[in-house]
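Write out this protein's structure.
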Amino acid sequence: MIYIQADDFIHFLSKYNTDTLLKNQKIINLEYQAVNDDVDLFDIKDKKEDEINRYKEGYDAKIFHNFLLRFTIVDQSINDYIKDDSTDEVVRDVLEDIQEVMEDALAECSVESFSPEIGGDYRSAEGVADNPKKVDTDDESKHFVIAEVFDEGYRREMDDGGYKIITQAKVSVYIYKRPEQEIDNKEQNNTIQE
């Protein structure tokens, strides 16, 4: 037989009742606040579910992006081997077949390669990597003009018609350098004026 002292039992009941009352009071306060704020509890639940779905979609999009990134790297490597003059002709033929299959797979995922326009302004070109290779020029009108695209970029078409860059294109740009004679004349003029 289990014996419980009356005082312990009464203390247990009062603590249980106090905890239950506090929990019920919190629920009542939340319901009261929701009514006072003209917020329906179902709206709160729906908003939280929408927020969770947005997080899930963002997470899924990130996983898909990284998945595509790996395939674009492989595709670019295949392109490099095909362009390499030292690649054996038989190997080149096999790589071209693989590249064709790879391009089809990427196209099914709405991924395409792209090249920025040669002669376009690097500063306003979309999808180009930072720190381009620099090519000196004495033609001031070519300053920051794209000289060459040496690695294509990859982008995915989105539902809204826009593009999400997967891999940025790598380019070289012209950088204007004044001719040495001009620099020497200006230095002489600065020296004379001093």
